[in-house]
Design a protein that fits this description.
- Belongs to the cytochrome P450 family.
- The chain is α+β, with helices and mostly antiparallel strands.
- It is built from 23 helices and twelve strands.
- The chain is 56% helix and 9% strand.
- The strands form four sheets. Strands 1-2-8-5-3 form a five-stranded mixed β-sheet, sandwiched between helices. Strands 4-12-9 form a three-stranded antiparallel β-sheet.
- A hairpin with a 2-residue loop joins β6 and β7.
- α11 packs antiparallel against α16 and α12 packs across α14.
- The protein is globular.
- The termini are far apart.
Length: 514
């Protein structure tokens, strides 16, 4: 077709559309009306409440997710519609803790393909795989290296790069004056960057190396955004991610170099370091006796990097923030620590003798869970029944953890920071409440790094409360319209974290009086 004919065809098409605009509009309206009628009258989920746009197209939910609003949207809709609502034409969101426990602990409810979005290297990690047999195999292989007993072997490293590193930093700042102002969110992020780098990459990194922090932070952000942006059309995904592709290349090279350097070290010495990098190299499936391939090690190392910094750093950030908003809780936690200890607190000691501080961390995980997502599972063949509604096979069920954690139907005074809820009542009631906090997941897919996270969170918080007195700057505003202490502004893209950490995470510290 020559140029003139092409132009004529374009003119003809334009003229036809202009002449038939009313017809086309009516056709579009008929299509929309048919779609609405189909969802309202024939969908197997038609009796379940939910927003109309979510019934018509899954793009509604995917767009919200791509913009980082999956969890906040779930929070809003769970308050409006209750424990179950339609979030996409073939998907529901649930927030009753009992329903969430059943779905997450039943292997037949398989992972949904959304997890494929986190597949960075072309090789499945324990998070991305949807095959139950592979999950079981990978858990047999890696599980022994994430138990409390193995993590305790790394406690010296965890303490050196965690509590002790922060103490050294803050003590040096207090040498010049009796008080100083610190940014605790930045401190915790730097601390966890240093700790995870040492445990996963086997490299000693400077606590204050902001340049290294910048590239590792940007790289992990890019990896996370790369996953979410895959929800968009492929051409738009490529345009949006192309400028940052070098970040992934840099971090991938860093992982490969770390593995290579460790293998060289092992070839020169019989000493085997006790850290997560060595665990990835040594781990073996007890049934098949197979080790992880280099590609699998790469995938798991990236997962540890992404999952090891933000969740711990920002849980600690929210814990300190909440303790400052609730002075009575801060006083009780501080009194508990100082009445029990006078020197460095180990994890085992903290677990045995600091029940209120542990409850403060649990309450932080409940009130502000750092992962800002809903957990998707697929209904098995034969379907299931939730809240009296039959849910057909293939339906996606999203565990709405944040909605569940703050539901008035399942928690008393859910928006108040009240650590005592994990200490009061019968042992069965307390156990049920603990099992209704889903920040680390639940059941056979619970986060392998849970014990590592607890080692860091409990030892860091205990030792800082032992050594320092905290006070908020006088400029901080505390109360909201309901009279409850007001949380600082947060961003909810993938993680619930402070929106303005430079100003909102300022803390005045002094050394505690002996």
């Amino acid at each position: 077709m020559d140029f003139d004919k092409t132009v004529q065809l374009i003119y003809w098409c334009t003229d036809w559309i202009s002449s038939n605009i009313i017809f086309l509009t009516l056709l579009l309206l008929c299509y929309l009306g048919f779609s609405v009628a189909k969802q309202v009258h024939t969908s197997p989920l038609r009796h379940i409440p939910g927003p109309l746009p979510a019934r018509l197209t899954k793009r509604y939910f995917e767009l919200i997710s791509a913009l980082g609003g999956m969890a906040t949207n779930g929070l809003k809709h769970s308050r409006r519609y209750g424990d179950i609502y339609v979030c996409q034409p073939n998907g529901i969101s649930i927030s009753d803790p009992a329903d969430i426990r059943r779905v997450l602990s039943t292997p037949q409810f398989t992972k949904h393909r959304y997890y494929r979005l986190l597949k960075f290297t072309g090789i499945d990690s324990i998070m991305t795989t949807m095959e139950h047999d592979m999950v079981s195999k990978r858990r047999r292989t890696l599980g022994p290296y994430f138990t409390t007993s193995f993590v305790s072997k790394m406690e010296a490293l965890i303490m050196a790069h965690g509590a002790q590193a922060i103490i050294a930093k803050w003590d040096s700042q207090l040498e010049e004056s009796q008080t100083c102002v610190v940014n605790y969110s930045e401190t915790f992020t730097l601390c966890m960057f240093s700790s995870v780098s040492r445990l996963v990459f086997g490299q000693e990194l400077l606590f204050d190396n902001n340049e290294q922090l910048r590239w590792i932070t940007n790289s992990t952000l890019f990896i996370s955004m790369r996953a979410i942006l895959q929800l968009l059309p492929h051409w738009l995904f490529k345009i949006l991610t192309w400028p940052w592709e070098h970040m992934y290349t840099k971090i991938a090279t860093h992982v490969e170099n770390s593995i290579s350097e460790r293998k060289q070290l092992l070839a020169q010495s019989s000493d085997r370091p006790v850290d997560l990098l060595q665990a990835l190299l040594d781990c073996e499936d007890p049934k098949s006796k197979m080790h992880l391939s280099p590609e699998q090690i790469h995938a798991e190392a990236l997962l540890l990097l992404i999952g090891g910094i933000d969740p711990i750093a920002f849980t600690l950030t929210w814990a300190v923030h909440l303790l400052m908003l609730y002075p009575e809780c801060y006083k009780r936690a501080t009194d508990e620590v100082r009445s029990q200890f006078s020197s460095l607190v180990s994890y085992a000691e903290a677990r045995a003798r600091l029940p209120f501080l542990e409850a403060c961390i649990l309450e932080t995980l409940r009130l502000v869970p750092v992962p800002s997502v809903q957990i998707p599972r697929e209904v098995p063949s034969g379907g299931t029944t939730i809240k009296g509604h039959f849910i057909p096979a293939g339906t996606v069920v999203f565990a709405n953890t944040w909605g569940s954690h703050t539901s008035e139907q399942h928690w008393r005074d859910p928006l108040r920071f009240h650590p005592e809820r994990f200490l009061e009542g019968s042992s069965a009631e307390i156990r049920l409440r603990r099992h209704s906090v889903f920040t680390f997941g639940y059941g056979n897919r619970i986060c392998l790094g849970k014990h590592l996270a607890w080692f860091n969170m409990l030892t860091i918080l205990a030792n800082l409360l032992l050594r320092y007195d905290f006070k908020l700057p006088s400029t901080c505003s505390r109360a909201d319209r309901s009279g409850l202490p007001r949380l600082m502004a947060m961003t909810t893209f993938l993680s619930n974290k402070p929106k303005y950490p430079e100003t909102d995470c300022q803390l005045i510290i002094t050394k505690a009086k002996s």
